[in-house]
Amino acid sequence: MTLQNKIDFAVVFTVNKANPNGDPLNGNRPRQDYNGHGEMSDVAIKRKLRNRLQDEGENIFVQSDERRNDAFRSLKDRADSVEELKKLLSDAKADEELAIKIASDEWYDVRAFGQVFAFKGTKMSVGVRGPVSIHTATSIDPVDITSMQITKSVNSTTNTTNPGQKTSDTMGMKHRVDFGTYIFYGSINPQLAEKTGFTSEDAEKLKQALITLFANDASSARPDGSMEVNKVFWWEHNNKIGQYSSAKVHRSVKIERTVDGLATSFEDYDIQVEPLEGLDVQVYDGL
Questions:
Q1: What span, in angstroms and rounded, lies between the C-alpha atoms of 98 and 108?
Q2: Helix 200-211 and helix 42-55: axis angle, to 10°?
Q3: Domain for residue 2, yes or no?
Q4: What is the CA radius of gyration of the chain?
Q5: Strand 253-257 relative to strand 227-236: parallel, antiparallel, unpaired?
Q6: Residue 17: which of 187, 208, 220 has the closest Cα?
Q7: Cβ partners under 8 Å of residue 77, min gap 6
Q8: Per-residue confidence in pLDDT tens, the chain, 287 aa
Q9: Residue 163: inside a domain, yes or no?
């Protein structure tokens, strides 16, 4: 069933000695704003959601190359694998709405987040506007970042001058957030859901992906257990436009530090949800 009511959500998660989202323009240090608050981009969050949904058997268009489950090495190749879509994109006068429907029916992330189909060699560009919008995650308090020098025990290539000496590529840096509690918000728009065919069942799958956001996400920068979803707040309105604006719903989550100085655990925060008349909130703990 196509989604009938607007949905808002919020996710609180903690980072403990990990790099949640490195900035490639800043030596891959964890992202921070000008006030020192940690950040995790909406793009990084959507990547993790796509990975979780792919783990659960959903067909995903924007797959990471290292974990793809098909033979396609580019988005164009994946789009061309759907013959009817390939034919439409090759015709400048083709039915754009039909192309949107085919792509949305085929891939979960297209009907959820949207996608631009504009590739070299195609004659029609198609933009799909998805109903699911997600904000950048921001830490409640400023975060401390620790950097450490690391070395490899062996050269990547033999040192031609002196094979017994280490080369410069054995030296590197590793960065981490010592501890931070982050929150991000999102919403699902029913009007846009109608256009892509995003259903109530799709919304339920997204909720479960949020609850298990960091499952199967371990790496050297994010060891298993270093990132944890603590709370997921889920509001379902009783109409398409929503009883309240998303901004007001998101502001209803109140988070306060209960200790002096730096927080070192999730228990150092008190989280309350301000009641909104006629709008109930479902609260889920992360797994």
A1: 17
A2: 110
A3: no
A4: 22
A5: unpaired
A6: 220
A7: none
A8: 889 999 999 999 999 999 999 999 999 999 999 999 999 999 999 999 999 999 999 999 999 999 999 999 999 999 999 999 999 999 989 899 999 999 999 999 999 999 999 998 888 999 999 999 999 999 999 999 999 988 777 777 777 677 767 666 666 789 999 999 999 999 999 999 999 999 999 999 999 999 999 999 999 999 999 999 999 999 999 999 999 999 999 999 999 999 999 999 999 999 999 999 999 999 999 87
A9: no
Q: Which domain holds residue 208?
A: 7-157+171-285
Q: How far apart are CA 253 and CA 103, in angstroms?
A: 36
Q: Could you give the CA distance from residue 136 to residue 39 in angstroms, rounded to a whole number?
A: 7
pTM of the model: 0.93
Q: How many domains, the chain?
A: 1
Cα 98 from Cα 94, distance rounded (Å): 8
Q: Is residue 1 part of a domain?
A: no
Q: How many CB atoms lie within 10 A of CB 102?
A: 22
3-state secondary structure of 139: strand
Q: Give CA separation, 19 vs 33, 77, 100, 144, 286, in Å.
A: 15, 32, 36, 11, 19
Number of H helices, E strands in the chain: 8, 14
